[in-house]
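Exam revision sheet. Question 4 asks you to relate a sequence to its structure. Input first:
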Amino acid sequence: MSRKERLAWMGLLAVALILRLWALGDRPPHHDEAIHCDFAYNLLTQGTYRYDPVYHGPLIYYIMAPLFALLGATTLVGRLYPTLAGVALVALPLFLRRRLGAGTAWWSGALLAISPIMLYYSRFAREDVPVALYTALALTLFLLVRRKGWKPIPWIGVAAAGHAVMKETVYVTLPLLAVAAYVVALRGGVWTSVRRGFSWIDRYRVAVGTAILWFFVVTITLFTVFFAHPEDWAFPVKAITYWYQQHSVERVGGPWFYHLTRLALYEFLPIVTALVWVIRRRRHLKRIEVFCLAWGLAGLAMYGYLGEKTPWLEVHQVLPFIPLAGAQLSRTFSPQGRWWSRGLATAGLVATAWSALAANFLYPAVTTSNPHAELIVFVQTTPEEGDLARHGLALAATHIGEGSVAAVDGEGAWPLSWQWKKIPVWWSIPEPGMRPPIVVCDPEQEAKFRERLGDGYTMRRVPLRAWWVEDVEGVNPSDIVTWFLTRRAWSPIGATDVLVFETSKK
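Answer key, structure tokens:
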């Protein structure tokens, strides 16, 4: 590697790290983030945890808990694992520079660094970016076997286990990879490819057996919480049963094109450039390029079909297109590239950087007091709730006596259960005679709480969680362009509110 290339990678990784760490703790925790942090904290302090597919895991809790022990139990620290996984994902193409080419590897890393969706969920205490890392790591290790021999193979089992113990999407990813492998096999003949596959397995049978052994050792050990719950050894049944049910009932439903609209508005650069590369090279695509294309297209179809529609699932849909897009951008910015091609690519990079900046730093949360909104933010805890949480912590710091600083009942319990974890809170309607300085309840409980609290309290309404009501009726292309340039939503912002009662005496 030349000095120039080394400096380019160092600069890229520095940018990726800064983008992911800057103001990491400013956004109030999403409902899911609060639950993940709370579970990890309970694991650290009480040793209590059991796998439940509703909340994914368990690896996220096993990693977050030690981080809390080392750095403190805060939302910022809770987000560090996905953040560092996001940086590692940016670095991963470096290990394939000989296979992909130096330029393709660097541009793949650059796209991962500034991808609005990858960046947003690298700053989010959820499982999807680590899952993308483990998926890409397993495939990278497989590709390194040609150069390194058998040594990477056992670690493929560990990387696959990392995916499995992070999130149930492993049961979606494996069929997609199988489809991609089948499409590659079609080029050389299916039976010829099958024979080559069995020959490969036979050649590395000890390493393959070790990989399989490590996979089961890691997954069973972690899902059973180090054998504290041995009955959870059959975790796939538990996971598939629950998530297939969610797919069937469409708990978080949406139209089949739900992901396509977001990908078109946020991730147009990697997808369009990937398709340009495929069209240009259609008769000369390498097997790895055919694999990525088939994986990407199958992923778009699969996630369009699945009943669960949330924007973090787009992390997995973007990933396969990155190496193809990296190849095209490498050619575009090489001496072979045309001036107009560079101009279009530069415009795409600027537009992508703007989306990344807006979604992650300007409008990373939604609220009714601000007309700006991002489509990838989904339902998010509001900045006003963050102010409320900080206000409660400030009250606790000056609180005198043994009584509760606050009482909370209803929807406000999350994320306040996490944010107020270390202060005395009464998690229900106050008992007669209790007069905590601050009380939070649902709007429909107003009369009940007024009667219980009596005089001496002021009341205000605070948006707790907000979302963009994506009404597309009457929306025209100019509205979409205006939104892209200004981030001003073309339809209303909805919210779930809470009431905050506070003692009049300060």
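Marking note for examiners. The longest helix spans residues 339-362.
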